[in-house]
Amino acid sequence: MGMRPGMGIPTMSRRAKRVLTAIVALVVLAILWFQFVSVYVDFLWFGEVGFREVFTTQALTRIVLFLVVGAVAAGLVLGAMVVAYRSRPVFVPSTNEQDPLAPYRIIISSRPRLIAIVAAVLIGLISGISAQGNWQTVQLFLHGGNFGKADPQFGHDIGFYVFRLPLIQMVLGWLFVITAICAVIVAVVQYLFGGLRTQGAGRKVTSAATLQLSLLVGFFVLIKAVQYWFDRYNLLFSDRSAIFTGASYTDVNAVLPAKIILMVIAAICAVGFIVGAILRSVKLPALAVALLVLSSVLIGGLWPLILQQVVVKPNANTREPAYISKNLDATRTAFGIGDDKVTYVPYQGETAGDKTDIVKDTDTVPNARLLDPNILSPTFTQNQQLKNWYGFASQLSVDRYTIGGKTGDFLVALRELNTAGLSANQQDWIQRHLVYTHGDGFVAAPANEVVNGVPNYRISEVSKPAGFVPISEPRIYYGQLTTDYSIVGSAAGDPARELETDSSTYTYQGSGGVSLGNLFQRLVFATNYSEMNFLFSSGINDNSKILYNRDPRTRVEKAAPFLTTDTKPYPAVVDGRIVWIVDAYTTAENYPYSQNVLLGDATTNSSQSRGAEAQVNKPISYIRNSVKATVDAYDGTVTLYQVDDADPLLEAWKGVFPGIVKPQSDISPDLRAHFRYPEDLFEVQRGLITKYNVSDPVSFFNNSGFWKVPGDPTSDTTLAQPPYYLQVKLPGEGSSGFALTSVMTGFAREFMASYMAASSDPETYGKITVLQLPTNTQTPGPAQVQNYFRTTQEISQLVTLSQQPGGTKVLFGNLLTLPVNNGLLYVEPFYIQGGASTAQFPQLNRVLVWYRGLVGVGSTLAEALVKAQPPDTSGTNPDGSPSSGAPSSTQSGGQPSVTSGSVVPPSNEAGARAALQAAYLNLELAKKTGDQELIGAANKRLEAAVTAYLGVTSSGLPSSTPITSAPSSSTG
User: Fold this and answer.
1) How much of the chain is helix, strand and coil, in % rounded to 5?
2) Helix and strand counts by DSSP (H, E) for the chain
3) What ranges does the record list as Low complexity composition bias (predicted)?
4) Which end of the chain has fewer CB atoms at under 10 Å, N or C?
5) 0.90 exceeded by the pTM?
6) Segment 796-845, tens digit of pLDDT
């Protein structure tokens, strides 16, 4: 039987080749088109906001880096391959065994030039793409100056570490990698063609291969020697010590000398490799490698380890303080918590005076904010939404306004467009993007005024632009909820299309947006959003514009990519315009001896569990709030203002992008009056102050005097209590001021340790005051006070009832702390929310206070203070259930009895509360019997008691202090 002839490799017809070429070309063009669209859309946006220089400078720097690094990398790789290929042996030494490398040699030998070019271009592309992401490092190197302060170890200006060292280390690292790649390529080529062998008789390495590899490895080791020199500076960012960042005793006395010794050894080894290359000998290079490896292990690794374990660890309290002192100084300077920024004031913490005196205090009681911005967004939505396509941010903001000559705190929010609220028949493309395009109005509420359980709203809107405060344009086109794009603008003579109410429409007149007036622009955006309606919709005409990147924080981040924005932008009415104010930071990762902090971790608190944005979790060792940005809510204009004239980082970026940051002199008095001390910066600083309030390095090492940021006792999480904006009067000040405040407790205690306030008033902006309580204080911290509140009979009953199926939901508001009479006053609003319907929303029901060991619950702050008495939890167990002190029904013989009768509607609050407690106890007793009929009857009795109780209490829901009889207003 004959062998079947083998089948040859199938060939493609000429037509098939043309089709395949066309398909490949189309795919390439499609990829290039999508890349172009992505870049062009950004280009158009930067032009719209007037920051095109940022786009072009950034793009040009990236392109130059890509081309330079890519070309150098490709050239070095190509040169290494060409030299290795041309110096290959003419004849490959043969062995008796089959050579597995023969097929690869044939492939390379058939097209050596093509293969070399492709390999070099590929490595060049990878190198260029990797390098272009370092555009900020290059620009800071070119424009960075000095900080005017030297590091304590080497005496270099801080600017060397922030601006110059990163680029030096980047270049050395890149050369290190590319040299290693070239060495590997040479070794592979020589191995494939017999210049480097592992088997067979005779010499295993040719002279050419020895020369090339020795020179490359010698250069490689020489680069390492230079790296050792610059690695010394990295010791100033060492995290060897678990206590502080910076060079420790071991780093200075073992690692630093080791780096210098290793540098010398590496330089000697590099010479050894070069000499070996000249002599065509591998012995000297081999000895050099052995010396380098051995010295690295012994000198660079083992010696510091021995010193740390034998000398430092047993005596750290005497060895490390000198280095801790350097960390203390650097950290305080880098994070703005030094003596020039922070004032520590001894504070007794033992309140003097009677509780009734507080009621008469005109500085304290009016400033106790009863509206919690983290809770009341649903209340704003329910009362002020107007239309389903409007909404409010999940986190409201706190600001201050002067009305009638009196400055007070207000909860503020914008009634924004919220496309998530559109109904099913409002969800088509035209309505989502051409009809529902904007919000309407500025909504504010005095932070301490409540009418019938809800805020006393003040409104400025389209129908009443001169309401709360006069606004020239109340429409909101840019905001936190408007994340989708809108298309605005009508042709001359066409009717207005943008809906405001059920009957009124509007056409956008602002300068924001990018034109859709030609087919090319429409094709670009059709591609970008994968939406063909851009090309075919009759609603788009020559006057149409598209609004995108509408979130204020996003706009600032794109316009100024060198800044890190605060996570809590807030709206304000400034000079008759609604603007978003966005705090922005310059940050650095390599400030010598400054404590390394993860920004995201340092700014995490319980508000994130309620929907607040989280900060990027990048390491920083320097931060400044050098820029305040505004974003106009109508036309999207982004403006950057410099507010710190002593920030070298911002000065460097101003050199990169001249003119984009306006000077302080351009800030209007009205805008400056609405500046707040930023929350993210405050949280970073308070976390550091818990440790860096200690000045003695030995005490710092022993954790003596440390504080901690308490957890939020009103949250279901263990996350930190967020800071709160309040009007507070600090000791020694003549009047109250608007400040961002926080409390801190002892390091391993729940008692108060300090009270921190950062001023937001223009005259004292940025001044941080820390009221420092005695170390032996017994003033309770937030967790203890919250426990007092929860275990009061009145509150514990409401909490217990809320746990019943379908029960009314209870919400503990922000636990505020106010310094008063040389002590502290705790105030907490308590809200209820009906659980039977989604239309229910939080309403203020009670005010809770703690003062001088007294706990009060009342309908107003004044009433709570007057009623304050020593904590009494005899009527409840710690979990809130009735204890033996609670009223009960008993049968003869002392056994409890179950009542199945109905509830008589009480005529007053005290009777309603007693009936509620009795009904709850009745249900507990019924459960113990196991009788389903009794349990059902008891449940009905409890439901009736709850209804009766809410009926009595809701008819008299509290006003806050000062008590107001003004009706709920939407007119301002």
Assistant:
1) 45, 20, 40
2) 30, 34
3) 880-908, 958-972
4) N
5) no
6) 888 887 777 777 889 999 999 999 888 899 999 999 987 655 568 999 99
Q: What are 317's two structure tokens?
A: 């309290």
Residue 907 clears pLDDT 60, i.e. is over it: no
Instruction: Report the chain's mean pLDDT, rounded to a whole number.
Output: 86
**For residue 674, which amino acid is it?**
H
pLDDT of residue 563: 97
- Per the listing, tokens 């009621």 go with 359
Cβ–Cβ under 8 Å, residues 934 and 420? no
Tell me how far CA of residue 29 lies from CA of 22, 43, 522, in angstroms: 10, 20, 19
Please tell me the distance from the alpha carbon of residue 897 to that of residue 653, in angstroms, as a whole number.
Answer: 78
Buried-exposed string 747-782: b where 16+ CB fall within 10 A, e elsewhere: eeebbbbbbbbbbbbeeebbbbbbbbbeeebebbbb
* Distances, alpha carbon 650 to alpha carbons 182, 562, 586, in Å: 40, 9, 7
The answer to whether position 70 is within a domain reads yes
Write out the two tokens for 827: 């105030």
Contacts of 629 (CB under 8 A, 6+ apart): 556, 559, 560, 563, 565, 581, 582, 583, 584, 638, 639, 640, 641
- Looking from the CA of 450 toward its CB, the CA atoms found within 13 Å total 30
Does 578 map to a domain?
A: no
Q: Exposed e or buried b for every residue in 2-12, given b needs 16+ CB within 10 A?
A: eeeeeeeeeee
CA atoms of 617 and 601, how far apart (whole Å): 6
Q: Is residue 20 part of a domain?
A: no
Show the domain range for 43.
Answer: 31-91+101-197
Task: Give pLDDT, residue 201.
Answer: 56
What CA–CA distance (Å, rounded) separates 639 from 667?
10
Does 8 or 640 have the greater pLDDT score?
A: 640
| Cα(520)–Cα(512) distance, integer angstroms | 20
Give residue 351's pLDDT band: very low, low, confident or very high (50, 70, 90). Answer: low
User: Residue 968 above 50 pLDDT?
Assistant: no
Q: Are 457 and 371 in contact (CB under 8 A)?
A: no
The Cα-based distances of 900 to 646, 919, 925, 935 in angstroms read 75, 10, 11, 9
Q: Burial level of 843, CB count in 10 A (0-12/13-18/19+)?
A: buried
Q: What is the pLDDT of residues 175-230, one digit of tens each?
A: 999 999 999 999 888 888 776 666 655 566 777 888 888 889 889 999 999 999 99
Domain assignment present for 182: yes
Residue ending a domain, choose from 162, 197, 232: 197
- Number of domains within the chain: 3
End residue of a domain, out of 548, 573, 592: 548
Q: Identify the three-state secondary structure at position 786.
A: helix
Please state whether the peptide bond connecting residue 962 to the residue before it is cis, i.e. omega within 30 degrees of 0: yes
Q: What's the Cα-to-Cα distance from 628 to each of 550, 565, 642, 941, rounded to whole Å? A: 18, 10, 7, 58
